[in-house]
Design a protein that fits this description.
With 260 residues, the protein is an alpha+beta fold. Among the domains are: 72 residues, Orthogonal Bundle (434 Repressor (Amino-terminal Domain)), CATH 1.10.260; 97 residues, Umud Fragment, subunit A, CATH 2.10.109.10. The chain has six helices and eleven strands. Strands 2, 4, 5, 6, 7, 8, 9, 10 and 11 form a nine-stranded mixed β-sheet that branches. The protein has a two-stranded antiparallel sheet with strand order 1-3. The protein is elongated.
């Protein structure tokens, strides 16, 4: 009897295991939030950030955009090159427990009641601080918790803006490109020989300001090549009646973000 020929068995289809995510989405979001925050501290508007990363770090525009959108992490080699942006790469990689709380809501601490400040922010000459609110009140900022900002500044971040230092008018104290934290709630000269941001039209300058015994103010620079000036009066940035050519107090410089 002839042997019965068996049909070859059909190969069984083995279901492929679902591909694992490269990284925890919450960690990716925490990284992108920090990267955007730190680039914002450098005075870079959102639309320019991917291009700056591409030029300085040496990655494609797509890669840079993915970092900023929280889609991928940089490699260790790329992370090292991120230092070329002028930021600390170690601050960009949160620990697995260091992610933003799920009940957090972000909002800019844009000063209210001053059209001049609003205009400077729109022109990207000032950057409002992004505040992160949580139900327990622990976080007041996306980079540092409230427990650090409160002792450092003496109060919350309302009314603070970032200004990128331009030029060498303050000598070695504040070099060109140094981000400065400005308290715009201070609209009058409250500290003798303090450092203030002054506004003339749409131009912002940083100077030392001192009251003169005979009246008026002495406006000085830390650069000896720049002569001091005197002014009879200084207005406030929220004074709607101030003339277009008036010199106005934008706020006091309370913190400089510099490398040690």
């Amino acid at each position: 009897m002839a042997a019965v020929q068996r049909k070859p068995a059909k190969p069984q289809l083995v279901a492929e295991e679902p591909k694992k995510l490269r990284a925890d989405p919450r960690r990716l979001k925490a990284f992108s939030d920090r990267l955007n925050l730190m680039m914002g501290e450098l005075g870079l508007p959102p639309r320019a950030r991917a291009r700056v990363i591409t030029d300085r770090v040496g990655v494609s525009t797509t890669t840079a955009a993915n970092w900023l959108r929280g889609r991928t992490f940089p490699s260790y080699e790329e992370l090292g090159r991120i230092g070329r942006l002028g930021v600390d790469p170690l601050r960009l990689m949160p620990d697995k427990t260091d992610v933003l709380p799920s009940n957090a809501s972000a909002m800019p601490s844009t000063p209210s009641g001053s059209k001049r400040l609003a205009r400077l922010i729109k022109l990207n000459k000032l950057l409002p601080i992004t505040r992160l609110h949580t139900d327990d009140g622990e976080w007041d900022h996306t980079a540092l918790p409230n427990s650090i900002w409160q002792p450092l500044l003496g109060r919350d971040l309302s009314g603070f803006v970032l200004l990128c230092m331009k030029g060498d008018t303050m000598g070695e104290r504040f070099r060109d490109g140094t981000p400065l934290l400005i308290d715009t709630n201070i609209k009058q000269i409250a500290e003798e020989n303090g450092i203030y941001a002054l506004l003339v039209g749409d131009n912002v300058v940083v100077r030392r300001v001192q009251r003169r015994l005979q009246g008026g103010y002495l406006i000085a620079s830390d650069n000896p090549a720049i002569a001091a000036e005197t002014l009879d009066q200084l207005g406030a940035h929220d004074d709607a009646s101030a003339k277009a050519d008036a010199v106005l107090v934008l706020g006091r410089v309370v913190l400089a973000i510099q490398k040690l």
